[in-house]
């Protein structure tokens, strides 16, 4: 995972940089959150590696929330999450949204499986397919309807693109928040977190296609033209025939057992 940052409200203090590794967070002389060198002085710690980011509380720590929900011991974090610690709300910043790409002509089928999954708010747990243009707004006919006060009738549009999902603002008061950044447009990728309105959180998700399998696919198709010296593919019928003697032996043994049972059981 790339370097993450914890940002203070209104950028009143310098961001806390969380590169790969373990980072302990405590308090400075003013009582504000800061990075500390000694674990004894920490209240929480962040672990960042290629798999993601985790938050762990020191034993006895209370009053810490992630996205408004209390954390008792440990929580997995995503870029765009808010961490509320001792009256200070820190935003976990991830990669900033990419610039809008050119208008596509064809969208690959692999990107037609991208979904928008609710992870907080009224649509928590629901999934919305993004195989076509999707409008987020307060109107009942919106593809993703968010009927909360002050939400725009037509807030934003999500459009499939060969490079990801394009976010376009449709006239909302403050735009949307992507990975902790306030934006009105940009190119989104699977794994990005989007916040609409006050706290309507969504995650872009898509099935993972291994680059190894993707690169091997053309080779697999060309195997039909391989030279005859290559090892032939075993026929399923031939494999079944090789298993037949064992099936016959089992049937004979079972028949013999039944015959003995009938013979001696009748006496």
TrEMBL record:
Originating species: Lysobacter concretionis Ko07 = DSM 16239
Keywords: Membrane, Transmembrane, Transmembrane helix
Stretches assigned to the FHA domain: 134-183
Highest taxon in the source lineage: Bacteria
Entries under InterPro entries matching the protein: FHA_dom, SMAD_FHA_dom_sf
UniProt protein name: FHA domain-containing protein
Pfam families tied to this protein: FHA
Keyword Phosphoprotein: no
Transmembrane segments: 246-266
């Amino acid at each position: 995972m790339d370097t993450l940052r914890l940002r203070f409200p209104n950028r009143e203090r310098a961001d806390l940089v969380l590169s790969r590794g373990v980072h302990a967070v405590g308090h400075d002389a003013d009582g504000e959150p800061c990075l500390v060198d000694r674990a004894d002085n920490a209240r929480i710690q962040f672990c960042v590696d290629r798999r993601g980011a985790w938050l762990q509380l020191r034993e006895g720590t209370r009053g810490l929330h992630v996205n408004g929900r209390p954390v008792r011991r440990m929580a997995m974090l995503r870029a765009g999450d808010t961490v509320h610690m001792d009256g200070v709300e820190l935003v976990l910043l991830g990669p900033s949204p990419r610039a809008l790409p050119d208008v596509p002509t064809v969208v690959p089928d692999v990107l037609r499986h991208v979904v928008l999954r609710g992870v907080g708010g009224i649509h928590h747990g629901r999934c919305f397919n993004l195989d076509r243009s999707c409008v987020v707004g307060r109107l009942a006919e919106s593809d993703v309807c968010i009927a909360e006060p002050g939400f725009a009738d037509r807030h934003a549009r999500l459009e499939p693109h060969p490079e990801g999902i394009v976010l376009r603002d449709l006239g909302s008061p403050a735009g949307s928040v992507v990975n902790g950044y306030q934006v009105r447009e940009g190119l989104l990728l699977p794994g990005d977190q989007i916040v609409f309105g006050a706290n309507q959180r969504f995650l872009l998700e898509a099935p993972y296609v291994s680059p190894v399998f993707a690169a091997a696919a053309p080779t697999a198709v060309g195997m039909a033209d391989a030279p005859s010296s290559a090892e032939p593919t075993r026929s399923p019928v031939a494999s079944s025939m090789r298993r037949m003697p064992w099936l016959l032996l089992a049937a004979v043994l079972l028949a013999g057992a039944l015959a003995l049972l009938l013979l001696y059981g009748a006496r």
